[in-house]
Amino acid sequence: MIYTIASGKGGTGKTTVASSLISLWDSPVTAVDLDVEEPNLHLFLNPTITRIDPAWIEVPEADEDKCTRCRACSDLCQFKAITVMGDTMLVFPEMCHGCGGCLAICPEGALRPAHRELGEICHGQINSGRFVMGRLRIGEAMSPPLMRQVKALFSGFVDKEPDTDIVVDAPPGVSCPAVSAVIDSDCVVLVTEPTPFGFHDFKLAWEAFSPFCIPMGAVINRADIGDDTVQRFCDEKGIPIWAEIPFDRAIAEAYSRGEVVAESLAPLRETFHQLRRAMRQAATTGQGAAQCAK
Ligand code: SF4
Ligand code: SF4
């Protein structure tokens, strides 16, 4: 099963929840940091990194002598990564999504494959199982191609070991990277906080993710601040609230020391055990997916 921990905005406690869940998981688990622009799960789980693989995509490189400036490639490219202007033919590799269409379509064989470095994929071990992290190269603008490679890796684990559990720390927000992280999950946990900003982005996330009809529940962090707008919205939409985490200075202090809060603060352990049980029940029964129809 693939369990994804997501949030409509950064700073709600998504990694706090993910790291605590992973540390208390009751069976071997693969921890995945898919927040490739700013991965930080490793700071809490302290994995032993066993291998780092470079990640890249195939981009076109032009042989201008062979190119007849027919424009077939520039007309095809949806991302404006190739331009033909008069006698000038330009490739912008940083805008290329690596679909390979131009390489396949060029009638003159004037394009050859080259590599653009995306970043790296780190493999490691934690006490409860495997650890995988994507890390985008500094200056690289596109995270989905690297995320696809990380996802292909852990989907391969699930194909080989169908009973394995994967817990994914997703990128925050509701743009392409967040949707890409959520889309193949068996269960999504939306972490939020009961503030106007928190509610606004929680609502956006629910609207963005609910059409996928994946069982989804909420975790309200710093639950005793703000108001009850998030709870009322959850009641209205039938979104189960799987856990509430109090606003507690001890949690902030543990987080700032890089500790897994469920390990440092015993009273929180049962909260995360209950959350894990609710997630597993939702993933195995499909409970919570009905909310997509509303
Ligand atoms: S399709 Fe090939 S020949 Fe035509 S403009 Fe592109 S690179 Fe040149
Ligand atoms: S590989 Fe695809 S995205 Fe990249 S330049 Fe060619 S057509 Fe455009």
Tell me what the structure shows.
The protein is α/β, with parallel strands linked by helices and 294 residues long. It has 2 domains: 2-55 and 119-293, 3-Layer(aba) Sandwich (Rossmann fold), CATH 3.40.50.300; 57-117, Alpha-Beta Plaits (2-Layer Sandwich). Helix content is 35%, strand content 26%. It has 11 helices and 11 strands. It has helices at 14-24, 41-45, 72-76, 101-105, 144-160, 176-182, 196-209, 229-237, 249-256, 261-264, 269-285; strands spanning 2-6, 29-33, 48-62, 82-85, 88-91, 111-126, 129-136, 165-169, 187-192, 216-220, 241-244. The chain has a 9-stranded mixed sheet with strand order 3-6-7-2-8-1-9-10-11, with helices on both faces. Strands 4-5 form a two-stranded antiparallel ribbon. A hairpin with a 2-residue loop joins strand 4 (82-85) and strand 5. Helix 5 (144-160) runs parallel beside helix 6. The longest helix has 17 residues, at 144-160. It is elongated and about 70 Å long. The two termini are 25 Å apart. It binds iron/sulfur cluster (2 copies). The site of one iron/sulfur cluster (SF4) has 14 residues, from strand 3 and helix 4.
Any descriptors?
294 residues; alpha/beta; Rossmann fold; Alpha-Beta Plaits; 2 domains; nine-stranded mixed beta sheet; two-stranded antiparallel sheet; binds iron/sulfur cluster
